[in-house]
Amino acid sequence: MSKKTYLFFVIALVGAALGLFYSGFSTSDFVAHLDRQLHPVSCSLLPGLTETTMLEQGAEGCKVAMFSPYSSFWRDRYWGGVPWSLFALGLFGFGLALSLWGIASRKGHHLAVNIGLLLAAIVAVAASLAFFSISVSKLHEFCKTCVGTYIASGILALGAALVFVSSIGDRRRAAAAGDKPTGVANVIAILVVLAEMGLATLLPVALYLNTVPDYGKYVAECGTLKSKEDKNNVLIPIGKPATQAGTESILVVDPLCPACAAFHKRIQDAPFASKMSFKVAILPLDSDCNWMMTDSMHPGACVLAKAMICAKDKAGEILDWSYANQKDFRPKDKADNPSARIREAVLKAYPQVKDCLDSPDTKIALNKTLNWAVDQSLPVLTPQLYVNGARLCDEDTDLGLDFAMTRLLGTK
User: Fold this and answer.
1) DSSP string covering 245-280, please?
2) Is residue 280 within 8 Å of residue 236, measured between CB atoms?
3) Distance between CA atoms of 66 and 402, rounded to whole angstroms?
């Protein structure tokens, strides 16, 4: 094997090692969240040297990527699903082992080794391009650790391609010296290497599936409504009309709650949403109208809550509008109370609620909703979801959503 081929194997080795490094941290971050809690993430091109909390701006891309439906598959079967990074671990591990073998044995010019390394690199690049496309078109955020994996794939591909081209001359020289495997031997060797690549890629997934705990027992342990009855008609239907197959689901939300907006979108985009019929219980975390609050967590939410009550069949539209404009409705500083600004925006967008917004009947209706929450002993927080009376655990609202909902809806 020539010195050039040796050098190119070193390049491939560096790419595979980097890929193993980044995919290892991605997998580690995912696995850490299997205790159903939030943890710091390695959102950096130098993971391990810097630690970023989930609330810091620098972690936004990694948080979005991890909690998106694109970070794992089989989420309805396993809590959180099976992370795609497990395949990356196996693939880069295979590339690393093959590069090491080529360097140590000086037999890296063999056709089977070259094809195996090149195919591993092609798969890594194809996967990187697919996930890069998802980041651009779907997530609109970039995970720095994922970017590190993309770079590693590129380096691996460069090294593998150079090895393949350079080793053509090596094979000719080896053949001239009498080292020329038969066509059948080459085919068998290639098939063996490809089988090894398949096994290496699937091994981390198999180990994960064999060790991941069953969280099914936790799904129904977060309480239920005291009564499914809505005697005072305080629950507001939103979305499509209920169908025979629709399971009654109650969303407890604050129109200015960012977590509510994100959770609502995840629910709407999920495949199980078609099996549900939604009603909303408005719980504004604003002391202007909510006598359970001593301070306003979301000042101005009372105005939007009253607007939803007034809008009746358009309540869902106002809720979506509120979510979309949350950034404009937030206080500009600690002294700012945006209620007047929100009221002006509501009346401009929905002038039909003007006469209703401050009426005594609207205030009474909102008080009835708050009393319903007290009667049900609901915690004063948002968002909450009750599916046929059973509460979705807070720990299941992100990675475990599909897993928990599949069981609450009785489709598993």
Assistant:
1) TPEEEEEEE-TT-HHHHHHHHHHHHSGGGGGEEEEE
2) yes
3) 14
How far is Cα 41 from Cα 143, in angstroms, rounded to an integer? 11
- Hey, what's the torsion of the CAs at 119, 121, 122, 126, to 10 degrees? 140
How many CB atoms are located within 10 Å of the residue 168 CB?
Answer: 12
Give burial (CB, 10 Å; 0-12/13-18/19+) of 203.
Answer: middle
Contact (CB, 8 A) for 152 and 125: no
Closest CA to 139 of 198, 66, 237: 66
* Fold of domain 3-211: de novo design (two linked rop proteins) (1.20.1440)
Contacts of 51 (CB under 8 A, 6+ apart): 40, 42
Give me the mean pLDDT over the 119-130 stretch: 97
| Structure-token match 């609050």, residue found | 293
- Give domain limits for the chain: 3-211, 236-408
55 pLDDT tier (thresholds 50, 70, 90): very low
Among 18-22, 106-110, 164-168, 405-409, the minimum mean pLDDT is found in 106-110
Phi, psi of 276 (to 5 degrees): -125, 150
Class of domain 236-408: alpha beta
| Burial profile 66-104: b = 16 or more Cβ within 10 angstroms, e = fewer | bbbbbbbeebbebbbbbbbbbbbbbbbbbbbebbbebbe
Q: Are 65 and 83 in contact (CB under 8 A)?
A: no
> Nearest Cα to 149, choosing from 24, 285, 307?
24
pLDDT grade, residue 54 (50/70/90)?
very low
pTM (2 d.p.): 0.84
